[in-house]
Design goal:
about 375 residues, about 70% helix
Amino acid sequence: MSTPSAATYARDVRVTWWYTVASVLSLQVFGLAIWAVAVVVNDAPLAVALYLVGAVGSTASAVLLLLRYRREPLDDGDARHPVWPSLVLGIASGSLAGAAVGSLLLAVALAAQALCLVRWRNGIRLRLVMLLIVVIVAAWIMDATRLNPGGYVAAVFGLALFVAMLPPLSATSLWWWDIVRELDRARRAEGRLAAAQERLRLASDLHDLQGHHLQVIALQLELAEKMMGRDPDAAVEQVRAARASVDEARRGTRDLAARFRGVPLPDELANAADLLRAAGLTVDLLVDADAGGAPADVLGPVVRESTTNVLKHGGGGSASLSLARHRGAWVLTVENDARGAASPVGDGAGLSGIAERVGTVGGTMDATRLGDRFRLTVQVPERVTA
């Protein structure tokens, strides 16, 4: 059974986030829509208009808070995107909607919903949610005591139950997302640790290999020096043996480096995407299911070089990486937002080196600027010999 690639995990995390967002927003929109039906039936046009304004503002606040929640690190706030404007919008809109229909419960529940969509520090959110549940229940009781038994108590009771459950359900959904995100961060840390361990193993193997050969070469040259005067032919043989030891050390070093570079191309792309995300870019990653068979020795250095170019020259906030098989060839596409670039993308020897590398195996490279975006497309035959 094959192990899921890093790209698969990254795609699953994105799917989990959009499922969480869809759940939270669909619950809120559905509750507000159902309540709107009761408002239209039972209230005046002015109340209906004010309620709709409050409902739209509350939904917009939820969208903004969720977007900020996605961008925000797990352990700190985001000073570039302050939470207070969106939070104030949610509380004010919820209060307006509740006042329009004369429901304290609706106002409190929508305000609590906005508060539950904020990433609070550890320990604060749990206490806040428990406190909000108590406040919601109290507002529910106060609403129930003010309603006339002959009115639409049953309808309001059903709506009240739905709206009252909205904040804790949203908080629970975001807790689940935080768990998934923490697991994904642990997976990435595990990958970086594995790479560090591999580098340490390489350093140890390289030290042993070079140390052994250098010691042998030193002894052979020392012996040749001592024999030079009395037996020149034997000294020459020792020099030839030292030269053979140098060739053997060089071959061993090359084999060791080739073994270290043998990273599957899907993992290479996933590592590049993680690196770009760590630099603050929004990254889309699309990898063919059979990308494990792509020529990693040719495209791997291209991925690393193009990633470096995006970090050095991109200057934007988004990038995309894709690898697909098309008409007997592998097509690697790296595209990034080049607005505000400090220097033109493609200056220097980076792209020339990529073109030379893929050209040796019959591939092609195309670098174009499309408005504010820069696209690098590399195509190599499906079956190449490095």
